[in-house]
Sequence to fold (307 residues):
Amino acid sequence: MSKISVIGAGNVGASCAEYIGMKNFAAEVVLLDIKENFAEGKAMDLMQTSALNGFETRIIGSTNDYSKTAGSDVVVITSGIPRKPGMTREELIGINAGIVDQVMTSCLEHSPEAIFVIVSNPMDTMTYLAKSKSGLPKNRIIGMGGALDSARFRYFLSTALGVPAKEVEGMVIGGHGDKTMIPLTRLASYKGVPVSEFLSEEKLAEIKASTMVGGATLTGMLGTSAWYAPGAAVSDLVQSIVCDQKKMMPCCVSLEGEYGQKDICIGVPVVLGASGWEKIVELDLNDSEKSEFAASAEAVRTMNGAL
Fold:
């Protein structure tokens, strides 16, 4: 079985470790943080649920000792700080870029063959940084955003339809931001039937708008970023990799001509397997969707420029 390391033991990182542990597809999860004894405490708390929840995955904590992550098959990076009042976008990117760069270097020293899943924000730019600075093959660098955004899209669709979310298919591509993501309402379906057969154009537009601000809505309600759905999205993505499930889900990956874009990491549907992302699936977008995607890519490039 596999070894997974999660860097950053905050709400999102701990949620990742919990869901990965409970799904029982990994032998070991290492939770690492810079705060003294914080990751150790989170790991111990999680392990004390193992007898109750029936999982056998071993979760261990570490205070900044990257040697504990040695031999990881997948490394999940959640490290970074949220944007604070008065902080510019460039300042946030500058701080988090330094953190992600240092984490990548430390992890690669001990796990040179690992696949990296980037969660740190701004996610598209941090994925681009990780790919550019690490020199790793592009298939081993994956940004998580689209998997989360699509789960939120399916939630809003299922609520409007009054059906279980697992019976609804829906995909979000583009950048992982409230002005850059593109919920593909035209392609969404309920049990194989287009949702447009059940929902009006006005309702679909409302669902699209709600999806795009889904993260911001929760931040406003909670006073901090969400963590349950992000953790579950990471665990689904990681499981597809280590179990070679070949699931297709939208992830932030490096494009080299696909969708008419180059030198950018942005969300598109990919097939996930043992070597990371194995194939980019090029959807037959209509003119409106192509225009939205081009605008999203331009916004992501502007963000990348702050690097």
